[in-house]
Amino acid sequence: MVILLTILHVIVAVFLILVVLLQTGKRADLAGAFGGGGSQTAFGARGAATLLSRLTSWSAGIFMATSLLLALMSSNGVGGGSVLDSVPASAPASAPAPAAPQPVVPPPATPTPAPAPTK
């Protein structure tokens, strides 16, 4: 189920990218290049929804739904869980414990001669 949903998610993501890139901007015509068209509104005149804009809306909705479903499945452990779940909690102690390290004894200090008095 997770693999099928992931494949659908990738297909919808690629489709969404293509549909967004195929759309033209609202001011892509010649009048928009010289500042004309829709000067009284904030974002230009709102026309009827085109096929590409409807496909964008639907594919964005499907993309969000598959994203949420994949996130919920991975948090519940349906997707297989973590890699660390298969590691044992502690390794058995089969080898003997190493011996305590021997203390390091410094060599005996040699007396240094006193400096000669200077005149």
Number-wise, the strands total: 0
Regions with little confidence, pLDDT below 50 for 5+ residues: none
Shape: elongated
Proportion in helices: 40-55%
Percentage of β-strand residues: under 5%
What class, by secondary structure content?
Answer: mainly alpha
- State the order of secondary-structure elements, H for helix, E for strand: HHH
Radius of gyration: 37 Å
Main beta sheet, described?
Answer: none
Task: Please work out how many helical segments DSSP would assign.
Answer: 3
Mean pLDDT: 77
Distance between the termini: 97 Å
Relevant terms:
119 residues, mainly alpha, 3 helices, 0% strand, elongated
Architecture overview:
It is built from 3 helices and no strands. It is an all-alpha fold and 119 residues long. The protein has a domain at 1-24 and 51-77. α1 runs antiparallel to α3 (51-75). The protein is elongated.
Short summary:
The chain has 3 helices and no strands. The chain has helices spanning 2-22, 30-33, 51-75. The longest helix has 25 residues, at 51-75.
Question: Layout of SSEs?
Answer:
Elements lengths: L1 H21 L7 H4 L17 H25 L44
Helix pairs in contact: 1-3
